[in-house]
């Protein structure tokens, strides 16, 4: 059976949830991945109102839609980050508070615990597993380029801090039997295969912690995004379908982006609508089949040069045409009967 294709609502937070769901249904999607911002999924209401999850699912069901995941990237970013004024723009006022960095870190951590608890409520109401996707933040991202020279102990301390802050969060994920999928991504504690492996080691390879696979953050870096699937075959808890273009020849800016905004033609790389970038999704589908991934294929649609409704519709069609079931037999097995 083909995997369900969902639309991540994070890029549609200017619309009400019902508006987004109606659009997604009209584009051909099977469900939505709910962002924990824009009023699309509210953890506090899920915990305080016994009917919240049921009412949400009833609304989706009436429209022929489902949900398999919720995501709180924005809050998760603030758990390990070195907090500055940029975070005020992405955090809920109650998480930002007075802006004291240590306080923001602590409030963000407590909120992610509540998101896990809310996901359990949603899972029980839905009758199937719900994955929580998001970011971790990083206290050592500023040390990426080792000049002035970076003492290895500084990097070690960053992973130790990550474990200290995330292990208590993962304790709650264990308690409620919910899994967390880190979207491996620049600015996170894990941004490629090597750092993803190190993050797992830092937390003792806890089962609650895995990955929301997204090739768009790996390819332009030069990371083998297909091998990522096979390397972490037991940790792919969710999949984002998202494309990115990177140039085959030198450009005016490189991998670091030249402080240019998305959509600037001088960039070496930029996010594009599915099928219009450089990612080889054929090989991704085959690798997902190899590891028997049966979860949703969630379109995180981003393309600065395209109307989002046109793009989201064509992206849904692209994924549904691309997805296929693996063969149960070898193609030449019938020869033995000759």
Give the topology.
Elements: E1 5-8, H1 17-27, E2 31-35, H2 43-48, H3 52-62, E3 66-71, H4 73-80, H5 93-96, H6 101-126, E4 131-134, H7 152-176, E5 179-182, H8 193-202, E6 209-213, H9 225-231, E7 236-241, E8 243-246, E9 269-272, H10 281-290, E10 297-299, H11 308-322
Parallel strand pairs: 1-2, 1-10, 2-3, 3-4, 4-5, 5-6, 6-7, 7-10
Antiparallel strand pairs: 8-9
Helix pairs in contact: 1-11, 4-6, 6-7, 9-10
Describe it.
With 338 residues, this protein is α/β, with parallel strands linked by helices. It has one domain: Divalent-metal-dependent TIM barrel enzymes (TIM Barrel, Alpha-Beta Barrel). Helix content is 39%, strand content 13%. The protein is built from eleven helices and ten strands. The chain has helices at 17-27, 43-48, 52-62, 73-80, 93-96, 101-126, 152-176, 193-202, 225-231, 281-290, 308-322, and strands at 5-8, 31-35, 66-71, 131-134, 179-182, 209-213, 236-241, 243-246, 269-272, 297-299. The strands form two sheets. Strands 1-2-3-4-5-6-7-10 form an eight-stranded parallel barrel, surrounded by six helices. Strands 8-9 form a two-stranded antiparallel ribbon. Strand 4, helix 7 and strand 5 (179-182) form a beta-alpha-beta unit. It is globular and about 60 Å long. The mean pLDDT is 96.
């Amino acid at each position: 059976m083909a995997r369900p294709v969902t639309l991540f609502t994070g890029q549609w937070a200017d619309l009400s949830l019902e508006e987004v769901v109606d659009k997604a249904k009209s584009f051909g999607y099977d469900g939505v991945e709910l962002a924990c911002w824009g009023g699309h999924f509210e953890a506090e209401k899920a915990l305080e109102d016994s009917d919240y999850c049921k009412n949400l699912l009833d609304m989706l069901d009436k429209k022929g839609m489902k949900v398999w995941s919720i995501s709180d990237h924005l809050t998760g970013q603030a758990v390990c980050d070195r907090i500055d004024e940029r975070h005020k723009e992405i955090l809920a006022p109650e998480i930002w508070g007075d802006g004291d960095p240590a306080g923001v870190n602590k409030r963000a951590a407590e909120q992610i615990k509540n998101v896990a608890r809310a996901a359990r409520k949603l899972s029980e109401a839905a009758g199937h597993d719900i994955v929580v996707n998001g970011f971790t933040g990083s206290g050592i991202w500023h040390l990426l380029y080792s000049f002035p020279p970076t003492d290895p102990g500084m990097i070690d301390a960053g992973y130790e801090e990550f474990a200290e802050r995330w292990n208590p969060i993962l304790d709650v994920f264990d308690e409620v039997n919910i899994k967390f999928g880190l979207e491996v991504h620049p600015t996170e504690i894990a941004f490629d295969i090597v750092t993803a492996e190190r993050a797992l080691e830092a937390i003792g390879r806890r089962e609650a912690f895995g990955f929301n696979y997204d090739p768009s953050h790996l390819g332009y870096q030069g990371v083998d995004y297909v091998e990522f699937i096979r390397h972490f075959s037991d940790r792919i808890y969710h999949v984002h379908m998202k494309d990115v273009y990177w140039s085959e020849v030198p450009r005016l800016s490189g991998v670091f982006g030249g402080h240019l905004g998305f959509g600037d033609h001088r960039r070496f790389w930029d996010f594009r609508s599915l099928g219009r970038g450089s990612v080889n999704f054929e090989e991704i589908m085959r690798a997902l089949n190899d590891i028997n991934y049966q979860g949703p294929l969630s379109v995180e649609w981003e393309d600065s040069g395209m109307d989002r409704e046109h793009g989201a519709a064509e992206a849904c069609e692209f994924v549904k045409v691309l997805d296929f079931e693996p063969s149960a037999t070898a193609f030449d097995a019938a020869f033995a009967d000759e």
